[in-house]
Amino acid sequence: MFNTNIVIFFPTFLECRKVLNISDFSSYFYFDTAVYKSIPIIITGAGKSNAAAHSALFFSEFKPKYPLLTGICGAYQNTGIKISDVVCIDYDYFADEANYNGNILTTIHEKGFIIAKDNRAEFQVDENFKKVSSNTVSLIPQFNSLSNIYMAKTNALVENMEGAAFGIAANKFGIKPYQIRAVSNYCGNIEKQQWDINNACVSLKKAVDLFIETHK
After folding, report:
1. Nearest to 82 by CA among 9, 186, 192
2. What span, in angstroms and rounded, lies between the C-alpha atoms of 31 and 186?
3. What is the mean pLDDT of residues 10-26?
4. Is 112 left (phi over 0), alpha (psi -120 to 50) or beta?
5. CA distance 27 to 25
6. Three-state secondary structure along the chain?
7. How many Å is the Cα radius of gyration of the chain?
8. Contact 136, 95 (CB under 8 A)
9. Percent of the chain scoring above 90 in pLDDT
10. What is the pLDDT of residue 141?
11. What's the distance, CA 101 to chain centroid?
12. For a surface tag, which of 8, 9, 47, 174 has the fewest beta carbons within 10 Å of its beta carbon?
């Protein structure tokens, strides 16, 4: 099933269903899977732990030419990125593996506890989409001060919950995957997040279809 050039990974069933209108999932080789346009789909599960575990297991057995992680993400405010924009991530940082004293964020990488080279995972870039860097976080603040610190730490423009973990697992097997996301909301102040998952998923479906068409 996975011996194809393209394999697409979604963090959650919700994102996959809303983007690709898929409802028929099954279990195969420890994975929750589906098929879209003859392309295998895998659900990694939300968050860094699920993404790392499932992607490491997958890449230990299979080596697709064009693995793609996709889903929604948040954009930092005042970056010029709009809700429903589609972005292609080049580097994804482990932004909150860190100490935080209320003012200063010091990553454990800076303290000498190395997770990955330069504290980030590396992805291939698809020139059809806007290239940005991302932060992968587990702690998602609903106020601006910490979001601004995350952004300033790495100069990332967006954030998600799986990318760096997925990417580092792939990188350890000599694979540079792709990561394409659609912006569903702004990060930070809860009153200014402007969530719009539906339109983000419409944009993302077009992006996934384009990726398939240009890489098949």
Report:
1. 186
2. 31
3. 95
4. left
5. 7
6. CCCCCEEEEECCHHHHHHHHCCCCCEEECCEEEEEECCEEEEECCCHHHHHHHHHHHHHHHCCCCEEEEEEEEEECCCCCCCCCCEEEEEEEEECCCEEECCCCEEECCCCCCCCCHHHEEECECCCCCEEEEEEECCCCCCCHHHHHHHHHHHCCCEEECCHHHHHHHHHHCCCCCEEEEEEEEECCCHHHCCCCHHHHHHHHHHHHHHHHHHHC
7. 16
8. yes
9. 93
10. 86
11. 27
12. 174
Q: Please write the tens of the pLDDT for every residue from 109-146.
A: 999 999 999 999 999 999 999 999 999 999 998 889 99
CATH topology of domain 6-215: Rossmann fold (3.40.50)
Is residue 97 within 8 Å of 207, Cβ to Cβ?
Answer: no
**Token pair for residue 28?**
């195969």
* Token representation of residue 71: 């889903």
Q: What are phi and psi of 121, to 5 degrees?
A: -100, 155
The token duo for 196 is: 């719009």
Annotated domain spans of the chain: 6-215
